[in-house]
Structures are given as C-alpha cells and as structure tokens.
Amino acid sequence: MGDYGLRQRRRDDQDYLLPQTSHIKVRLPPKTKSGLTCCKFLFFVFVGLPLSLVGFGSYLVFTPGIIDPQYYSMPEPPELTGPLAVNDMLTKAERLMEGEISGPESILLDQGKLYTGTYNGKVVEILKNEVLRFVRWGPPPCGSYITEPTCGRPLGVRMTSNKQLIVADAYLGIYSVNIVEGKDVF
C-alpha cells in the first residue's frame, strides 16, 4: 500500500530499527510529561496537604472525645513544723580536706581515722585532716573519666573484724586491703 499523505502513529512499546543500520534494534522510551508531574506535586504540597491537615484538625476539635475531664485543685500544703521543719544544720558544718581529696565516697570512721575511696582511684586513711596513707590499684596518671577503667573508682569501704578494709571498686571488683602495709590481700 502506498502512503496517501496520512501519517500513522507509532506505538512507544514497539521495537524500531535505526535508519542507518538495519541490525540494531532500539526501544524508544515512553513519552513523559514532566511538567504535569511537577505541577501535580506542587498542587499536593501547597493545596492538598494543607487542606487535609485543616480537615483533620477540625475533626479533632469539633468531635466530642471519650474522656470526660473533671476539675481538680490541689490541697493546701502542710505546715513546715515537726519533721517537716526547715533544717539548715549542715550549713554550719566544717568542710574537711577541701581541695585535697576529690570525690570521696563511702566514708568509714574507725578509732578516729577516716577511710574513703576517691575519684582518682585511691583509698585513703585520714587522721586530723592529714592523709596518712593511701592505696591505689591502677598505674598513674589517674583522676579523669578516661582513666577510671584502669585506675578504678572505689565506691564502698567497710572494715572487717581483723582490721582489713573491704573495698568495692566500680571497675576492678572487690578487694581486701591491708592499708598499713599498703597491699591488697586477695
């Protein structure tokens, strides 16, 4: 049949031959209308989404809820008398070893001597505001958050009947310490 001046439409899903080469088949991509897709997106963002949010918000505001709130007022607070009286006795306390011992925990008093674990991994013996001796498990330098796993952080100190200190360390475990000789027993 001849071409009578009518143009036939090509379908986009068919294979076509290139004019120069007859052995290569090329599939043409489907025609897209990118401008229309962009307009649909902008319409959704600037019109559809705000309208749906306004509709959902008005639904929440104007529909009755299943909760029936009741008015409640707090009772008057009790008077600060008896055990609730203001206690400022600690404001008159004397600070011991301020600036010399950092972060003491679990203080033990035995025959006038204080024993405590410190932030830098030491267990110290204090008599009359002076450090008599100390025991440290980790190698110096100690006293920072980074060195706590190696230097230790003694958090609990107790005395046994045979004058051994039992020290509970957060990182290194439980130790029995002879602080006079400066060594651990276990």
UniProtKB/TrEMBL annotation:
Superkingdom per UniProt: Eukaryota
Any one GO cellular component localisation term in the record: endomembrane system
Keywords carried by this UniProt record: Membrane, Transmembrane, Transmembrane helix
A Pfam family assignment: SSL_N
SUPFAM superfamilies, alphabetized: Calcium-dependent phosphotriesterase
TM helices/strands, residue ranges: 41-62
Gene Ontology molecular function terms on file: hydrolase activity
Name by which UniProt lists this protein: Adipocyte plasma membrane-associated protein
